[in-house]
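Protocol check, entry for the methods section draft. Step 1: assemble the input record (protein sequence plus ligand SMILES). Step 2: submit for complex structure prediction. Step 3: store the C-alpha cells unaltered in the notebook. Ligand used here: molybdenum atom. Step 1 record:
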Amino acid sequence: MSAPDRRRWLAGAGASLAGLALTACDRLNAHPGFTRVLASAEGLTRRAQRLVVDRKALAQEFTPEDLSPDFKANGTIRPSSPAYAAHAAAAFADWRILVDGLVERPQSLSLDELRALPARTQITRHDCVEGWSAIGKWTGARLGPLLDRAGLKPEARYLVFHCADHLGPNQDESDRYYESIDLIDAYHPQTLLAYAMNDQPLPVAHGAPVRLRVERQLGYKHAKYVQRIEAVADFAHIRGGKGGFWEDRGYEWYAGI
Ligand SMILES: Nc1nc2c(c(=O)[nH]1)N[C@H]1C(S)=C(S)[C@@H](COP(=O)(O)O)O[C@H]1N2
Ligand SMILES: [Mo]
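Step 3, stored output:
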C-alpha cells in the first residue's frame, strides 16, 4: 500500500470502528482477538493501533464528594441575541436540536425528545486550556444512539456543532461559536448532549439548554448552546476551515487529554 492509500485506509478503519453500535463494539472488545485482528489486518503500525484503542478508553470519573463547589463558567456566559433571550424566557420550550448534513434521516428534536434518548450521568473533570479545572456532574443523551437514529451516510467523517452564541466583537456569523469532533469521539460512551449539570437543568452560563460533553478533550471542544449538529465529510469549507471557533484562531483541532 502506498503511504497516502494507507493513511486513507487507517482513517477509514478508525471511522468504521467508531461507527459500530456500542453493543456490537462492546461485544467485539470482549473478544480477545479483535484488536489483534484489527492491528494485523492491513499491517497497522503499533502507534496507529494505540491511537485507535486508547481513544476509546474512558475519562476518569469522580465521586459526589469531589464536585467543585464553584464550577467556573467560561467564554460566553449568556448569548446576547434576542432570539436566545426569548428561548430562555420560555424555559427553552421551543428549542430544537437539528441533526442534518450527511445523514439519511435528518432530525429535529425537542428537549423532551432528547431527554427520552438513552442517557448517561457522569462526574468528570473539565480542563480548560487557560489552566483551570473543575469537577462537575453531567447528565445527557449519548450522542451515538442519536447518530444511529439519524443514520450517518458512509461519507460522514466529522460532526460540526453550531452554537447559538457569538464570541467576539462582531456579534455576527464570523463570531459564532462552533466546534467539531470525529466519529471516534462521537461514539465514545461518555460523549453526551448534556441537559443537566449537578442534577439541575443546565444553567445558562454553562450552555443551556444543551451542551456537548466530550470528556477526552479540553474545555473548548465542549460546545455550549448547541442548536445544530451537521455531519460532514470534512470541514475545510466551513468558516475558517480549521474545525472550530478557537481552532480558526490557532488552537489545535485535536485537544486530547
Ligand atoms: N458556545 C460556546 N461553547 C463554549 C465556549 C463558548 O464561549 N461558547 N467556551 C468554551 C471553553 S474555552 C470552555 S473552558 C468551556 C467552558 O464551559 P463552562 O462555561 O461550563 O465552564 O466551554 C467551551 N464551549
Ligand atoms: Mo476553555
